[in-house]
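Hi C.,

You asked whether I'd gotten around to modeling the 308-residue construct. I have! Everything is below, sequence then structure, no commentary in between.
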Amino acid sequence: MATMSETTSTHRPDNFSLALFFLVVLLGGSNSVAIRFCNRELAPFWGATLRFGVAALIFWLILWWRKLKLPGLRDSTVIAVNGFLSVGVSFALLYWALIRVPVGLATIIISIGPLFTFFLAVLHRLERFRIQVLVGGSISLLGMAIAINAQPGGMELLPSILALILGSLVAAEGNVIFKMYSLKGDPAVINALSLSAGALFLGAASLIAGEAWLLPVKPEVWIAVVYLILGGSVAMFYMFVYLLSRWTASAASYAILCFPLVATFLAAWLAKEAVTLLFLLGGVIVITGVWIGAFLRLDGLWKMLKSP
């Protein structure tokens, strides 16, 4: 297992990495809207299986074309565990929850992922504890309560909301496990193994649930499926793994903090979801709390204020 000094070391963000970061934000923020369209025709676990199964196949073809080799048994196991959690379990919960939860609310709840990532990174001794995580978490909970109450029948969505929270927690643990071992493999190799493990879990969940394995009929659902495979999986996961291998776990998860901005706009535009001022207020409070808890560096600010 890597030491703290090894796992927290990171490359300085360059223009290329920052460009990838903003692309991840754009693609990741669009994913929840596309999933909502897929759920109109496809059973949730089957829709996720189709998405990640085809995306995994594309990555395996990239491996074959580039003649890349798989890592050793230890690294392959860690990557598979990450995929089982971050792709399989997490997205099973996300797809199921998005049957009922509006996209804007779902992405606001998912945006607490960086707080989970930081908390778990502290537990795994990858990062040091900062007291403002408690303050930020409390602020985010307040904002989440406001956003939920702003939705019609908000409390009736509680099971789906809990599923989203659990999914975010599981995904954070998977990313921290990945970072614990400081894996530096090619993103195509990592994603081929990770998405395959996740697709196997999702396929098993679909079979157990007795879902029908059907293909879409409506053009807009086909567009959503193709987008989720190529843009929301192959492109986004490749770029996110690249960032995760070079930045700290909490810094890479900063992208999740920006997802609600993209998702709320697209949901209002494409899915015609209503957006109220009270809901926007709750979302802003959640994002503020996550920023304070997971990203604000008070020690650096204090040193800057003390300097002449």
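If it helps when you're writing up: The two ends are 42 Å apart (CA to CA).

Thanks,
B.
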